[in-house]
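**Sequence, structure tokens**
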Amino acid sequence: MRRRTVLGGLVTAALVLTSAPLAASAAPPTDVLTRAVGQLRAHADHARVGAEQSFTLQNVLTDPDGTEHVRLHRYYGGLPVLGGDLVVHLGKGNTWRGTSQTLGTTPRLSRQARIDAAAAGTVALAASTATDRRVDGSQLVVDAHSGTPALAYEVVVGGVHADQTPSELHVLVDATTGAVRRTWEGIHRDGVGNTLHSGQVPVGTTLASGTYQLNDGARGGHKTYDLNGRRFGTGTIVTSTTNVFGDGTLANRATTAADAHFGAAVTWDYYKNVHGRNGIRNDGVAAYSRVHYGANYVNAFWSDSCFCMTYGDGDAAQGWRPLTSLDVAGHEMTHGVTSNTAGLVYSGESGGLNEATSDIFGTLVEFYAANANDPADYLIGEELRTSGVPLRYMDQPSKDGSSKDCWYSGIGSIDVHYSSGVGNHFFYLLAVGSGSSSYGNSPTCNGSTVTGIGNAKAGAIWYRALTRYMTSNTNYAGARTATLSAATDLYGAGSTEYATVAAAWSAVGVN
């Protein structure tokens, strides 16, 4: 589990993972770990493994032919190596089939810090723009996101943004120079699609002491709570004496709660029925939802630290509805899936891929639901504004005025919600194709023509790439490699699907 807690995401994952069920594998965890590490050490140069390194198991996925994809955390002298996570691919009979990783060089460095944790905390506090800033945790790590690995403090700075969104800013402070090396936000916030309601829909409930609760026992016990305007805590679980929640209007507080609860259920069903994933962590345990966050809050966010989704009510005076539509639920819960698989860091190109992954699966959840009140499309947030203007367009992302259609060398320096346009554009081309369709009109960056392969195949390729091949620091070039590997696994290297993946990436400038 990749939780972004006060201890830092990577180390917490290593500490808690060993107690979690392993997906699609009957082999004992110690056996899988021992075999994977043994192969790593036998191929040390390829895997960039040194004697000072150790590994812990995150999860293992096993294909029908016996191939194992073993995702590991890497440590150097006991310190987490950020950007050192990798997937070891083992064929039948424990044969070596290589690795997926982004680590560029074998770490070799001193573990003696020249500044102390207090000084690093002071630097990290200054890097945050949130109010009510505080240091929530600090640990020494090896920063291997890019360039030469270096000793650093990972400091988590808590606080609140001006728009009421909580902040969990991770700041990497160089343990030698005291300079800020990198930052990323642990709260994944986004303004995406919403509707007042999804029509009359079933919601999973539990009867307790004569009162029905929004507690979905069929889906891991997913619960929905009312924060009643607060910005902290869990809130009060939403209840009804009649097992009817909401009336389709915002005058009834349970209407928004029913939307969020239904969105979580559809997202759970999509991942389970389409990809065989049993919940966000693939362990059968549900996250939870919180509605009515803050006052006129025009956003929604996923937080690893609470393992929950949170929705604002929007601001009717400014033309915003509550953020509880199907694609919002799918988007936010997918941040949790990404965190528990590839762990794409929420900055740079990996951050754009993180956001694109949530837009992609949020869209696929909307298609899966086939809800007449919110027809499926490739628009992000089309239900959010009363004007009907979407926040993002997958067919041509630049139509929103900020997102990018095509990759360029500096794309990692812009906001992740805009750099995600490259991934969104790729997926649209892969699924639908270029040119005009009932869903939009998609140009290509190289003037080529792409014929789509459909949502089912495109989604299967992206999911396999995310869960088998991408790692925390994967960039767009790495995503091309990962999706081509996934297409090879699923359809063959000489297949139309493989060729279309390659063509769609070239069509957005990723060659």
Q: What stands out?
A: DSSP finds eleven helices and 23 strands in the chain. Confidence is low (pLDDT under 50) at residues 1-26, 189-195. The radius of gyration is 22 Å. The longest helix spans residues 253-275.
